[in-house]
Design brief:
By secondary structure, the chain is of the alpha/beta class. 33% of the residues lie in helices and 23% in strands. The protein has helices at 133-138, 157-167, 191-204, 221-240, 253-266, 280-288, 317-325, 334-338, 368-392, 399-416, 426-437, 450-456; strands spanning 3-5, 8-12, 15-18, 28-33, 39-48, 51-56, 69-76, 78-80, 89-91, 108-110, 127-129, 141-142, 149-151, 169-171, 176-177, 180-189, 210-216, 245-251, 292-293, 300-308, 328-331, 351-352. The strands form four sheets. Strands 9, 13, 16, 17, 18, 19, 20, 21 and 22 form a nine-stranded mixed beta sheet that branches. Strands 1-7-4-5-6-3-2 form a seven-stranded antiparallel beta sheet, with no helix packed on it. Strands 12-11-14-15 form a four-stranded antiparallel beta sheet, with no helix packed on it. It is elongated, with a radius of gyration of 25 Å.
Length: 461
């Protein structure tokens, strides 16, 4: 039952202030109507005794205290969901924008989600094959994991996201799972970026298995905060009610953080680091922690949030706090990008904390953990030798160091570098890793068991 309130104190920008308001909840949906009958949605963003501030999803141009009618819905933001959302495109508030008609369902779902009881969570084990060697071999993505991509302005994170969507598939201990869907959330993107993703999914023939939530850069700022929640709500529905394995990709979390900062400023809250609200950590956690699996369910939600680090600063509040919440990160390198290496993933600062429990015998291949450790160790040493070579020159390096330099070049150009449409099987990735490490002297392979070397290394020297 709607409750009507006619006491408006202020209408400015996208904010409406009301007083003498009672029995209203934080986050409650608000219907705003002007004298010409144009209706807009809003949401309660602040309550101070009997005063309420409403953030309207759009501008309030033409609205005034005299001609604006406000009614409170008495419920949080909810969206209808059914299996028909697969293959569909929605805006940031869950409204269809693909001319396919509305989604009709008997049930509406709160976009804030339902917290998962930690005791009911299943520990992630099965890996997701992306077809990208650096991810599959060294930063393995596990089903139910939250693994962000840290990028920078101008780096090919959009291409990498589209490639993951196109190639990703679940590999369980029993077999490959075909019960796999993608939920894609674009937050504050330009129209040409949204068009790129649509075309990429269409050309790859996976659009019927992808649900898209697109918030454009010129859409209302409040939609930017709702969009990822709509996407995660859809993912939870597909995973826990339709028993599907769902991969959620969200880009760009930095745009989400900027929107959060703007709304916080409108609320007149005391700013924290770099002007972001003090609750940035808990707000990001409310998104990231919705990934996972349930012990009594077959479905899963795996999350890959993408964020662009301002000035490539990994200590910026958004990547910094994201690193605390998530289970690792994939870091893109501008130096590798300038070497024309795609994808330009810098494996040394990258990490998948759940990788060790989802690889090896019974999951990928028995040699995976050891060859992965050897690649990390050797490539780490390459960086030290490159720094030394800048001082003394490559000619004065020892023969051993020159071998490492050769390994570093091969690692970047053959293992890390691959075509945008190249989909490598996990066995191909591991075989390629063995080919690369064979460039090193055998006495330098200190992370590999001699029996493993004998079994998998094809060169006899």
């Amino acid at each position: 039952m709607k409750k009507e309130y006619l006491v408006l104190d202020k209408v400015a920008g996208s904010i409406i202030e009301l007083s003498k308001v009672h029995r209203v909840g934080y986050g409650e949906i608000v219907h705003v109507e002007d004298s010409e009958g144009e209706k807009k949605l809003g949401r309660v963003i602040k309550i101070d005794k009997d005063k309420v501030i409403v953030q309207v999803f759009g501008a309030t141009l033409g609205h005034s205290i005299e001609n604006t009618k406000v009614s409170f819905a008495g419920r949080p933001f909810e969206i209808p969901l059914s299996k028909d959302i697969l293959g569909r495109t929605f805006n940031g508030v869950g409204e269809a924008i693909d001319n396919g008609g509305d989604i009709y369902s008997d049930k509406f779902y709160n976009v804030n989600g339902r917290p998962i009881n930690p005791v009911a969570r299943e520990y992630p084990r099965d890996y997701i094959q992306t077809g990208i060697s650096t991810i599959d071999g060294l930063i393995t993505l596990i089903r139910g994991q939250k693994l962000p991509i840290f990028s920078g302005s101008g780096l090919p994170h959009n291409e990498l996201a589209a490639q993951i969507v196109r190639q990703a598939k679940i590999q369980t201990k029993e077999n490959e799972s075909n019960n796999f869907s993608i939920v894609f959330a674009a937050i504050g993107v330009k129209h040409d970026e949204a068009f790129f993703f649509k075309e990429a999914f269409k050309k790859a023939g996976v659009e019927s298995n992808v649900v898209m939530y697109i918030n454009y850069a010129d859409d209302p700022i409040m939609e930017r905060i709702i969009a990822p929640r709509c996407a995660l709500t859809a993912a939870e529905y597909l995973a826990f009610e339709e028993n599907r394995h769902v991969l959620v990709i969200m880009t760009d979390i930095t745009s989400y953080g900027e929107a959060l900062r703007e709304v916080s400023s409108l609320r007149e809250e005391v700013p924290s680091r770099r002007g972001y609200p003090g609750y940035l950590y808990s707000d990001l956690a409310s998104l990231y922690e919705r990934a996972g699996m349930l012990k009594d369910g077959e479905g899963s939600v795996t999350l890959i949030p993408i964020l662009t680090m301002p000035n490539d600063d990994i200590t910026h509040p958004i990547p910094d706090l994201t690193g605390y919440i998530t289970e690792g990160q994939i870091v893109l390198s501008r130096d590798l990008f300038q070497k024309n290496i795609y994808p330009p993933i810098n494996v040394l600062p990258s990490l998948s904390r759940l990788m060790k429990d989802g690889i090896g015998e019974g999951y990928t291949r028995e040699d995976h953990p050891d060859i992965s450790n050897q690649l990390f160790s050797a490539y780490s040493k390459v960086q030290d030798i490159r720094a030394l070579a800048q001082i003394v020159g490559e000619e004065d390096l020892s023969e051993n160091d020159k071998k490492y330099m050769e390994f570093g070049e091969a690692f970047e150009k053959e293992f890390a570098n691959q075509e945008y449409n190249e989909n490598r099987d996990i066995n191909d990735t591991l075989d390629l890793a063995w080919k690369i490490v064979s460039l090193l002297p055998k006495d330098e392979l200190d992370r590999l068991d001699p029996k493993t070397i004998q079994k998998y290394m094809k060169t006899g020297d």
